[in-house]
Protein backbone atom coordinates (compact mmCIF):
# COMPACT_ATOMS: atom_id res chain seq x y z
CA UNK A 1 0.00 0.00 0.00
CA UNK A 2 1.27 3.46 -0.87
CA UNK A 3 0.92 6.80 0.86
CA UNK A 4 -2.67 8.06 1.36
CA UNK A 5 -1.95 11.09 -0.82
CA UNK A 6 -0.91 10.88 -4.49
CA UNK A 7 0.89 14.24 -4.33
CA UNK A 8 3.05 13.07 -1.41
CA UNK A 9 3.82 9.88 -3.35
CA UNK A 10 5.01 12.01 -6.28
CA UNK A 11 7.11 14.23 -4.03
CA UNK A 12 8.68 11.14 -2.43
CA UNK A 13 9.60 9.96 -5.93
CA UNK A 14 11.15 13.35 -6.73
CA UNK A 15 13.32 13.27 -3.60
CA UNK A 16 14.57 9.85 -4.73
CA UNK A 17 15.51 11.19 -8.17
CA UNK A 18 17.43 13.99 -6.47
CA UNK A 19 19.02 11.48 -4.10
CA UNK A 20 20.25 9.41 -7.07
CA UNK A 21 21.94 12.51 -8.53
CA UNK A 22 23.59 13.25 -5.17
CA UNK A 23 24.76 9.66 -4.66
CA UNK A 24 26.39 9.52 -8.10
CA UNK A 25 28.66 12.34 -6.91
CA UNK A 26 28.96 11.20 -3.28
CA UNK A 27 30.32 7.84 -4.39
CA UNK A 28 33.14 9.43 -6.41
CA UNK A 29 36.59 10.00 -4.98
CA UNK A 30 36.37 13.66 -3.92
CA UNK A 31 40.09 14.08 -4.61
CA UNK A 32 39.32 14.26 -8.34
CA UNK A 33 37.76 17.67 -7.71
CA UNK A 34 40.98 19.21 -6.43
CA UNK A 35 42.15 20.11 -9.92
CA UNK A 36 38.75 21.57 -10.91
CA UNK A 37 37.06 24.86 -10.12
CA UNK A 38 33.98 23.11 -8.81
CA UNK A 39 33.43 21.14 -5.59
CA UNK A 40 31.55 17.87 -5.19
CA UNK A 41 29.20 19.70 -2.84
CA UNK A 42 28.28 22.39 -5.35
CA UNK A 43 27.86 19.83 -8.09
CA UNK A 44 25.61 17.60 -5.97
CA UNK A 45 23.59 20.55 -4.65
CA UNK A 46 22.91 21.95 -8.12
CA UNK A 47 22.18 18.56 -9.70
CA UNK A 48 19.60 17.88 -6.98
CA UNK A 49 18.15 21.39 -7.26
CA UNK A 50 17.64 21.11 -11.02
CA UNK A 51 15.94 17.73 -10.97
CA UNK A 52 13.63 18.82 -8.14
CA UNK A 53 12.61 22.06 -9.84
CA UNK A 54 12.03 20.35 -13.22
CA UNK A 55 9.96 17.58 -11.66
CA UNK A 56 7.92 19.85 -9.37
CA UNK A 57 7.10 22.07 -12.36
CA UNK A 58 5.86 19.02 -14.25
CA UNK A 59 3.33 18.15 -11.53
CA UNK A 60 2.36 21.53 -10.09
CA UNK A 61 2.06 25.21 -10.94
CA UNK A 62 2.93 26.39 -7.44
CA UNK A 63 5.96 28.66 -6.96
CA UNK A 64 9.19 27.12 -5.68
CA UNK A 65 11.59 28.55 -3.14
CA UNK A 66 14.82 26.56 -3.09
CA UNK A 67 18.02 27.33 -1.25
CA UNK A 68 19.66 27.32 -4.68
CA UNK A 69 17.23 29.87 -6.16
CA UNK A 70 16.23 31.90 -3.14
CA UNK A 71 16.60 35.41 -4.59
CA UNK A 72 12.87 36.00 -5.04
CA UNK A 73 11.51 39.40 -3.98
CA UNK A 74 9.60 39.60 -0.72
CA UNK A 75 6.99 41.63 -2.67
CA UNK A 76 6.35 38.59 -4.79
CA UNK A 77 6.66 36.00 -2.01
CA UNK A 78 4.01 37.86 0.00
CA UNK A 79 1.46 36.93 -2.66
CA UNK A 80 2.06 33.20 -2.15
CA UNK A 81 -0.59 31.20 -0.33
CA UNK A 82 0.95 27.83 -1.20
CA UNK A 83 4.47 27.10 -2.41
CA UNK A 84 7.16 24.43 -2.48
CA UNK A 85 10.03 25.00 -0.08
CA UNK A 86 13.15 23.06 -1.03
CA UNK A 87 16.58 22.35 0.38
CA UNK A 88 18.14 20.12 -2.28
CA UNK A 89 21.04 19.08 -0.05
CA UNK A 90 20.90 19.76 3.69
CA UNK A 91 23.79 18.68 5.86
CA UNK A 92 26.62 19.86 3.68
CA UNK A 93 29.20 19.16 6.39
CA UNK A 94 27.91 15.61 6.68
CA UNK A 95 28.18 15.19 2.92
CA UNK A 96 31.82 16.31 2.93
CA UNK A 97 32.61 14.18 6.00
CA UNK A 98 30.89 11.27 4.26
CA UNK A 99 28.93 10.20 7.34
CA UNK A 100 25.70 9.80 5.36
CA UNK A 101 23.58 12.19 7.45
CA UNK A 102 22.51 14.54 4.66
CA UNK A 103 19.05 14.95 3.20
CA UNK A 104 16.90 16.09 0.31
CA UNK A 105 14.02 18.24 1.59
CA UNK A 106 10.74 19.21 -0.08
CA UNK A 107 7.90 20.85 1.82
CA UNK A 108 4.50 22.11 0.78
CA UNK A 109 3.71 25.30 2.70
CA UNK A 110 0.14 26.56 2.93
CA UNK A 111 -0.64 29.83 4.69
CA UNK A 112 2.73 29.84 6.46
CA UNK A 113 2.37 26.26 7.70
CA UNK A 114 4.16 23.13 6.44
CA UNK A 115 1.30 20.79 5.48
CA UNK A 116 3.28 18.09 3.71
CA UNK A 117 6.95 17.24 3.68
CA UNK A 118 9.41 14.63 2.54
CA UNK A 119 12.94 14.27 3.93
CA UNK A 120 15.07 11.70 2.13
CA UNK A 121 18.51 10.58 3.31
CA UNK A 122 19.87 8.81 0.21
CA UNK A 123 23.02 7.41 1.84
CA UNK A 124 20.89 5.88 4.62
CA UNK A 125 18.26 4.71 2.12
CA UNK A 126 15.54 6.16 4.34
CA UNK A 127 12.77 8.66 3.74
CA UNK A 128 10.40 10.44 6.11
CA UNK A 129 6.99 11.63 4.96
CA UNK A 130 4.50 13.77 6.85
CA UNK A 131 1.02 14.71 5.68
CA UNK A 132 -1.12 17.02 7.82
CA UNK A 133 -4.19 15.25 9.15
CA UNK A 134 -3.10 11.89 7.71
CA UNK A 135 0.04 10.90 9.57
CA UNK A 136 3.79 10.37 9.23
CA UNK A 137 5.83 7.46 7.94
CA UNK A 138 9.30 6.28 7.26
CA UNK A 139 9.90 4.58 3.94
CA UNK A 140 12.69 2.14 3.30
CA UNK A 141 12.93 -0.22 0.31
CA UNK A 142 9.32 0.50 -0.55
CA UNK A 143 8.07 -0.36 2.93
CA UNK A 144 6.11 2.28 4.83
CA UNK A 145 6.12 2.32 8.63
CA UNK A 146 3.89 4.70 10.57
CA UNK A 147 5.82 6.83 13.05
CA UNK A 148 4.79 9.03 15.95
CA UNK A 149 6.55 11.27 18.43
CA UNK A 150 6.93 9.82 21.94
CA UNK A 151 6.18 11.98 24.93
CA UNK A 152 8.71 11.83 27.77
CA UNK A 153 7.45 9.77 30.68
CA UNK A 154 8.33 10.29 34.34
CA UNK A 155 11.65 8.79 35.34
CA UNK A 156 12.80 8.31 31.77
CA UNK A 157 16.08 9.79 30.56
CA UNK A 158 15.46 12.83 28.35
CA UNK A 159 16.86 12.26 24.89
CA UNK A 160 17.94 15.59 23.43
CA UNK A 161 19.03 16.00 19.83
CA UNK A 162 22.09 18.13 19.22
CA UNK A 163 23.96 19.27 16.17
CA UNK A 164 27.08 17.35 15.23
CA UNK A 165 28.53 20.71 14.36
CA UNK A 166 27.67 23.11 17.19
CA UNK A 167 26.99 23.03 20.93
CA UNK A 168 26.08 25.94 23.18
CA UNK A 169 25.85 26.95 26.85
CA UNK A 170 22.11 27.68 26.28
CA UNK A 171 21.52 24.00 25.52
CA UNK A 172 23.36 23.04 28.69
CA UNK A 173 21.08 25.52 30.51
CA UNK A 174 17.93 23.98 29.01
CA UNK A 175 19.10 20.49 29.96
CA UNK A 176 19.66 21.66 33.53
CA UNK A 177 15.94 22.63 33.71
CA UNK A 178 14.71 19.12 32.92
CA UNK A 179 13.82 16.63 35.64
CA UNK A 180 15.76 13.42 35.32
CA UNK A 181 18.82 12.42 33.39
CA UNK A 182 19.61 13.70 29.92
CA UNK A 183 21.32 12.04 27.03
CA UNK A 184 22.53 13.89 23.94
CA UNK A 185 21.83 12.32 20.57
CA UNK A 186 24.02 13.70 17.80
CA UNK A 187 22.74 13.90 14.24
CA UNK A 188 23.37 16.00 11.16
CA UNK A 189 20.95 17.97 8.97
CA UNK A 190 17.13 17.96 9.07
CA UNK A 191 17.32 14.39 10.38
CA UNK A 192 17.44 16.01 13.83
CA UNK A 193 13.75 16.97 13.63
CA UNK A 194 12.96 13.52 12.22
CA UNK A 195 14.44 11.86 15.32
CA UNK A 196 11.74 13.52 17.42
CA UNK A 197 9.10 12.62 14.81
CA UNK A 198 9.96 8.91 14.99
CA UNK A 199 10.13 8.79 18.78
CA UNK A 200 13.91 8.40 19.01
CA UNK A 201 14.29 11.66 20.95
CA UNK A 202 12.06 13.89 23.09
CA UNK A 203 13.45 17.33 22.31
CA UNK A 204 15.47 19.16 19.69
CA UNK A 205 16.35 22.70 20.78
CA UNK A 206 17.90 24.76 17.99
CA UNK A 207 19.75 27.75 19.36
CA UNK A 208 21.61 28.57 16.21
CA UNK A 209 20.83 29.93 12.76
CA UNK A 210 18.84 27.99 10.18
CA UNK A 211 16.89 29.07 7.12
CA UNK A 212 13.29 28.15 6.36
CA UNK A 213 14.30 25.55 3.74
CA UNK A 214 16.42 23.74 6.37
CA UNK A 215 13.34 22.98 8.47
CA UNK A 216 10.15 23.10 6.31
CA UNK A 217 10.00 19.45 5.21
CA UNK A 218 11.11 17.94 8.52
CA UNK A 219 8.74 20.33 10.34
CA UNK A 220 5.85 18.83 8.34
CA UNK A 221 7.03 15.33 9.28
CA UNK A 222 7.35 16.28 12.96
CA UNK A 223 3.91 17.89 13.25
CA UNK A 224 2.20 15.10 11.29
CA UNK A 225 3.84 12.70 13.77
CA UNK A 226 2.31 14.62 16.68
CA UNK A 227 5.32 16.75 17.68
CA UNK A 228 5.37 20.54 18.05
CA UNK A 229 7.80 22.97 16.44
CA UNK A 230 7.74 26.26 18.32
CA UNK A 231 9.74 29.45 18.60
CA UNK A 232 12.30 29.12 21.39
CA UNK A 233 13.03 31.96 23.79
CA UNK A 234 16.45 31.23 25.37
CA UNK A 235 15.22 32.95 28.57
CA UNK A 236 12.23 30.60 28.78
CA UNK A 237 13.17 27.58 26.66
CA UNK A 238 10.36 25.30 27.87
CA UNK A 239 7.51 27.86 27.56
CA UNK A 240 4.33 25.76 27.07
CA UNK A 241 2.65 28.69 25.26
CA UNK A 242 5.40 29.24 22.70
CA UNK A 243 4.11 30.03 19.20
CA UNK A 244 4.46 27.71 16.23
CA UNK A 245 7.35 28.31 13.84
CA UNK A 246 5.94 29.83 10.63
CA UNK A 247 7.10 30.24 7.03
CA UNK A 248 7.12 33.11 4.56
CA UNK A 249 5.71 35.56 7.07
CA UNK A 250 8.63 38.00 6.89
CA UNK A 251 11.21 39.23 4.42
CA UNK A 252 14.11 37.33 5.96
CA UNK A 253 14.14 33.59 5.37
CA UNK A 254 16.11 33.03 8.57
CA UNK A 255 14.29 31.10 11.30
CA UNK A 256 14.23 32.22 14.90
CA UNK A 257 15.59 29.74 17.44
CA UNK A 258 13.11 26.89 17.77
CA UNK A 259 12.23 23.82 19.80
CA UNK A 260 10.94 20.52 18.48
CA UNK A 261 9.15 18.66 21.25
CA UNK A 262 7.29 15.38 21.35
N1 LIG B 1 24.89 31.52 9.74
C1 LIG B 1 23.91 30.72 9.26
N2 LIG B 1 22.85 31.23 8.62
C2 LIG B 1 21.87 30.44 8.16
N3 LIG B 1 21.87 29.11 8.29
C3 LIG B 1 22.90 28.54 8.89
C4 LIG B 1 23.98 29.29 9.41
N4 LIG B 1 24.86 28.43 9.97
C5 LIG B 1 24.34 27.19 9.79
N5 LIG B 1 23.17 27.26 9.15
C6 LIG B 1 22.29 26.18 8.75
O1 LIG B 1 22.45 25.07 9.60
C7 LIG B 1 22.57 23.90 8.81
C8 LIG B 1 23.54 22.96 9.46
O2 LIG B 1 23.03 22.61 10.68
P1 LIG B 1 23.64 21.38 11.47
O3 LIG B 1 25.07 21.66 11.64
O4 LIG B 1 22.87 21.37 12.73
O5 LIG B 1 23.39 20.18 10.63
C9 LIG B 1 23.09 24.34 7.47
O6 LIG B 1 22.45 23.59 6.45
P2 LIG B 1 23.29 23.13 5.16
O7 LIG B 1 24.14 22.00 5.58
O8 LIG B 1 22.25 22.74 4.16
O9 LIG B 1 24.08 24.31 4.72
C10 LIG B 1 22.69 25.78 7.37
O10 LIG B 1 21.61 25.95 6.51
MG1 LIG C 1 20.39 23.35 4.56
Structural account:
With 262 residues, this protein is of the alpha+beta class. The protein folds into 2 domains: 6-147, Fructose-1,6-Bisphosphatase, subunit A, domain 1 (Fructose-1,6-Bisphosphatase, Chain A, domain 1), CATH 3.30.540.10; 158-261, D-Maltodextrin-Binding Protein, domain 2. Helix content is 30%, strand content 27%. It has 7 helices and 12 strands. It has helices at residues 6-26, 40-59, 74-77, 92-97, 169-176, 191-197, 212-224; strands at 64-66, 82-90, 103-110, 113-121, 126-131, 135-140, 143-147, 158-163, 182-187, 203-206, 228-231, 258-261. The strands form 3 sheets. A 7-stranded mixed β-sheet has the order 1-2-3-4-5-6-7, with helices on both faces. It is globular. The two termini are 27 Å apart. The mean pLDDT is 95. The structure holds adenosine-3'-5'-diphosphate and magnesium ion.
Short description:
With 262 residues, the protein is of the alpha+beta class.
Backbone shape: globular
Give the number of domains: 2
Fraction of residues in β-strands: 25-35%
Query: Could you say which small molecules are bound to this protein?
Result: adenosine-3'-5'-diphosphate, magnesium ion
CATH level-two architecture of the largest domain: 2-Layer Sandwich
C-alpha end-to-end distance: 27 Å
E-strand count: 12
Average residue-wise pLDDT = 95
The parts where pLDDT drops under 50 for at least 5 residues are none
Query: What order do the SSEs take from the amino end to the carboxyl end, as H and E?
Result: HHEHEHEEEEEEHEHEHEE
Tell me about the largest β-sheet: 7 strands, mixed
